[in-house]
Amino acid sequence: MATITLNPGKERPVQQRHPWIFSGAIARVQGYVGRGDAVEVCAASGEWLARGTWSSGSQIRARLFSWDADEPIDEALLRRRLARAIAAREWLGYTGDDIACRLVFAESDGLPGLIVDRYGAYLVVQLLTQGMAARADMVAGLLAELARPRGIYERSDAEVREKEGLPPGEGLLWGEAPPEQIRARQPGGLAMLADLRAGQKTGAYLDQAHNRLRVASYCAGREVLDCFCYSGGFAIAAARAGAAHVLAADSSAPALEMLRANLAANEQAGVEPVEADVFKLLRQYRHEGRQFDVVILDPPKFAHAQAQLERATRGYKDINLIAMQLLRPGGVLATFSCSGLVSADLFQKVVFGAALDARRDVQIVERLTQAPDHPVLLSFPEGEYLKGLVCRVA
Ligand code: SAH
């Protein structure tokens, strides 16, 4: 097996069990290493530190799986880690044949490069590193054994695969192909339909499941504007909690089709879908002098790379500013950022900047984060990417 030797002083994060080795930390590689192969990691002193898988094309050149010299990266290791991840979801209360949840959250579950979402009887898998792509069959076989699904479908994120020098990965990995729409239950009892093959992400935004219930608790009797609504998770939860009226806006026509289907699946009325660019819609509503009691902002990831950070913060400030202007006194702004590169601190500063410009006194009443099936490993704080602020706008 090949050995990576780190530059002097680069061993500390590895000793602290951070699972990434950046190309700049590597002094030399001894021996032949192919895409996705297991590699040993040593300090400049020669001391053995950890074992990982190699990614030839990525800035993150190795992903670490073990800090135990006797633990190879083999089927037994993958089985142990998968079983532990699956058991943790059961422990969290994600049980029942029709549940939707994230079964495996990559580094946070000791399985860098692997995401597995469960939608009832079907699993959707993302293999995002050369190491995981090389072990696709092994992973599929183990998941079939441990989670007993009807089918396992791959929907690897094309953008991330490209950074790894991997071709797009999509298609049936094991068992039966999922039907076009799957009905699965989310925490709180919301029945959500997901299109595992053509929907966004793996079919739904599972990370917001708990937050939808929290935000809905502010919506009874209120006029609500749900921006970037996708298939309607926030909007339907708000309507179910007794909102007077919900406008749900998204630029994607298929997303709004799914929203209509979700309304039917939940026998819920009171949500009006609007197909629009939210940036324009917010300005139009401001121009028309429209007012709301609750505005929800759950935009897509604005920052995909450090170079986009400034533009991303401008985008967040823009929508948050106008959202505040649309709120009646005492109204609620539920605002989110899923850009990992935007820290919680920076996000709060951006919302503060919007409040100053809107000349409104704004209090944070709740801080929200990703659902418990997307845990954050203390040795890998990068796993925390979703930030939400529920604000009362005076
Ligand atoms: N709130 C959703 C998830 C939102 S994901 C939920 O709880 O499930 C982000 C959404 O923003 C996607 O549905 C995407 O179609 C939409 N979107 C992206 N850019 C947009 C724009 N400029 N205007 C309106 N919608 C947009």
Describe the model.
The chain has 11 helices and 20 strands. It is an alpha/beta fold. It is 30% helix and 30% strand. Helix 8 links the parallel strand 15 and strand 16. Helix 2 crosses helix 4, helix 6 packs parallel to helix 7 and helix 10 packs across helix 11. The strands form 4 sheets. The chain has a 7-stranded mixed sheet, sandwiched between helices. The protein has a 6-stranded mixed sheet with strand order 2-6-5-4-1-3. It folds into 3 domains: 65 residues, PUA domain (Archaeosine Trna-guanine Transglycosylase, Chain: A, domain 4), CATH 2.30.130.10; 109 residues, RNA methyltransferase domain (HRMD) like (Transcription Regulator spoIIAA); 189 residues, Rossmann fold, CATH 3.40.50. The mean pLDDT is 96. The chain is globular and about 70 Å long. S-adenosyl-L-homocysteine binds next to helix 7 and helix 9.
Provide the low-confidence segments as ranges. Answer: none
Unique ligands = S-adenosyl-L-homocysteine
Total separate domains: 3
CATH architectural group of the largest domain: 3-Layer(aba) Sandwich
**How many individual β-strands?**
20
- What is the residue-mean pLDDT, rounded to a whole number? 96
Q: Give the percentage of residues in beta strands.
A: 25-35%
Sheet with the most strands, sense and barrel status: 7 strands, mixed
Going by CATH, what is the homologous superfamily of the largest domain? Vaccinia Virus protein VP39
In helices, the fraction of residues equals 25-40%
Individual helix count: 11
The Cα radius of gyration reads 22 Å
In terms of structural class, how would the helical and strand content be classed? alpha/beta
Q: CATH topology of the largest domain, what is it called?
A: Rossmann fold
CATH class of the largest domain: Alpha Beta
Distance between the termini: 62 Å
Overall outline:
globular
Order of strands across the biggest sheet?
A: 16-15-14-17-18-20-19
